[in-house]
Amino acid sequence: MTDTARTTAPTPSEVLPAISVRSAGKIFTVAKGAEVQALTGIDLTVAPGEFVSLIGPSGCGKSTLLRLIADLDSATSGEILVFGKTARQARLDQEYGIAFQSAGLLPWRSVQANIELPLELHGVGKAERAARAEELIELVGLTDFRSRFPDQLSGGMQQRVAIARSLAERPKLLLMDEPFGALDEMTRERMQQELVRICSETGAAVVFVTHSIPEAVFLSDRVVVMSPRPGRIVDIVSVDLGPGTSRSDSLRENPAFFAGVTAVREALHGSPVAPLGADLR
Amino acid sequence: MTMTTGAGLARRRWSALLWGLLGVVLLAVLWEGYKAIGPPTGVVLFDTSILPKTDDRSMPHLVDMLSRAIEPVNTSAGSPPVWVAVIGAALTSLGVAAVGWAIGSVVGFLIALLMQRLQVAERAVLPWLILSQTVPLIALAPVIVAWGGKIQIGAFSWDRWMSVAVIASYLAFFPVAVGALRGLQSPDTIHVELMRTYNAGWFRTLLKLRLPASVPYLLPALRLGAASAIVGTVVAEVSTGYKGGIGRMIIEFAQSGTSDPAKAYAPIAGAVVLGLVSAGIVALIGLTLKRFNRQEAAS
Fold first, then answer.
1. Where are the domains of chain B?
2. Which chain B residues are Cβ-neighbours of A121 within 8 angstroms?
3. Backbone angles phi, psi at A25, to 5 degrees
4. Given this model, what pLDDT does residue B8 score?
5. Are B296 and A151 within 8 A, CB to CB?
6. Which spans of this chain does the record mark as coiled coil (chain A) (predicted)?
7. Strand pairing of A222-227 and A232-238?
8. Interface TM-score (ipTM) > 0.85
């Protein structure tokens, strides 16, 4: 951080990356003292407001990386900074909102009460809570469902509530672990659309774990491609849609989108994908 | 996921009541049926009595039991009808059992909290809890009475009913402790981690997550505890010699069994009703916590 401050002198908040991971590693100790290297040599910087997806096969450590950033696990080596603070401090300061694959709503709380939960825990007054919940309910399009309970909602609706809840405290960073993984394809595409809109409205940086290539390309500014055993970053693909291209449904038929999908796929399979003939020989 | 309509719920409740009544009728038919066709000397196989004698002393007619219940307890002047005496004794027992249930529930819940908080405690305490329930109450009762008799602090002195309540609580705490522990441990990892991301400490997590999540486990445990408290009270009344309750009455009436066999069944029925009433009272408490009994959202 001091290096960048010396060369140019913009205000610190402008240079401060949302996330800065430097040569981070994670070793899990499993039964009988055996060790599993889940992550090794991870370097990643996420700029404020940037949308970054983590993609890779199962076991590549993408969820683990997210959990390290969220301070739900701690790295065994390296350094993880969130807005210049340690991951732990960032968690204590509520610097991020989080959403998991299952919505994780509390079944005895209404939609509104679920969204208010983090605010309630942090002593926000009742009127202010209600006002904020109202905004968020509108943002995720659940106005008619505010007093419903989770078991009365579809999977997609539950996930919307979870996203609204993760946004409750206006975090500048959103961590999402396959939030649409359990949804059907139609709902999934609609939710992606919604997420793009929500992100542009809130301006939060997002780290998004997925194993869908089109989903990653559709949503992200950059796609981080990871590989297992040990979990590491093999490539970072920038998704360049060209100037003025908005991430709307029509993007799914745009050549730039296909180019992005191809680039990510090649990175995933070890580039280039082409030598199929060589394999068959 | 199916939403239960009001009409459907009411119908199910009526059918539950109907099945319950049917069970009682079936029992009555069995009783009278065996009495009608069974041999008067009972069924004995290899010198072992398999089925009871069917004479009026061993198996009085149901009608006799009912008519005896509305006659006075004994021949002395001003003696109340048996059913009135039974209700009085049942209420006495209910009061003692309620105290025992309350103490047992609080203690059981606190033990569960401790076990949830400290894993070491769970491993250390749980085996003792299970062991505690294998101690026969009959053996325990004199010890508690003897200990209680030594307690005298100022104006307070240990009463016999307190021994009964303590023994009742000894039975009641166990299901509550086990049920509450399961309930407190029931939240999913995702919920616990979510609370961690909110930087909510143990107490906050307890208040907002574990306690509400434990309700579906706690209510049946409390109901079970109530039934146990009644059993404990009845047994403890007998073994401590506490007078005025239904347990004592069962013994007293049974002793007059040879001359007045139908009389003994009234307090037994009273004890059964008492168990049902106590479980019902706890169920009423549960109604106020209905919101927490919601199913986990399907995801």
1. 1-59, 62-293
2. 195, 198, 200, 204, 208
3. -140, 155
4. 74
5. yes
6. none
7. antiparallel
8. no
